[in-house]
């Protein structure tokens, strides 16, 4: 099976709605980040590619008629070359609207995790307060999805 539709838009630009629409219109199943999260083999294949492995697009998209969202959106140029007959769809939203959509689910999780780590570091009987503060700060930096603080 060859990809018939390639979605080139970033996540949080309506890709899940597009996935549903493509499936309803007969272009499903549609590959989406949710597929990667749900299937261990998909995780393994995409991680191998991200680590510099050679892309095996036929294996990565075996059984799919379309793709949207990450990680395929990152490789849109390559996919358009490999599947020149595929239709290309760009989902888009303004940067402000995108950030608002991104911030709600992702920054809230980071803030909750940061709050838990700060609470845990304060209650740890084995760490000095200075060490606990440094650990909490390091954790908060590693959890930020972007350079802009949530």
TrEMBL record:
<feature type="region of interest" description="Disordered">
    <location>
        <begin position="119"/>
        <end position="150"/>
    </location>
</feature>
<dbReference type="InterPro" id="IPR040632">
    <property type="entry name" value="Sulfotransfer_4"/>
</dbReference>
<feature type="compositionally biased region" description="Polar residues">
    <location>
        <begin position="119"/>
        <end position="129"/>
    </location>
</feature>
<dbReference type="InterPro" id="IPR027417">
    <property type="entry name" value="P-loop_NTPase"/>
</dbReference>
<protein>
    <recommendedName>
        <fullName>Sulfotransferase family protein</fullName>
    </recommendedName>
</protein>
<dbReference type="Pfam" id="PF17784">
    <property type="entry name" value="Sulfotransfer_4"/>
</dbReference>
């Amino acid at each position: 099976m060859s990809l018939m539709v390639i979605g080139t838009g970033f996540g949080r630009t309506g890709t899940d709605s597009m996935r549903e629409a493509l499936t309803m219109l007969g272009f499903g199943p549609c590959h989406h980040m949710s597929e990667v999260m749900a299937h261990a083999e998909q995780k393994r294949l995409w991680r191998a590619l991200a680590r510099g492995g050679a892309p095996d697009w036929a294996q990565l998209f075996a059984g799919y008629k379309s793709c949207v969202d990450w990680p395929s959106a990152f490789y849109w140029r390559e996919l358009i070359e490999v599947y020149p007959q595929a239709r290309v769809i760009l989902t888009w939203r303004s940067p402000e609207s995108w950030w608002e959509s991104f911030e709600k689910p992702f920054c809230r999780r980071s803030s909750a995790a940061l709050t838990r780590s700060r609470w845990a570091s304060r209650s740890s009987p084995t760490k000095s307060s200075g060490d606990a503060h440094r650990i909490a700060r390091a954790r908060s930096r590693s959890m930020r999805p972007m350079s802009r603080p949530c």
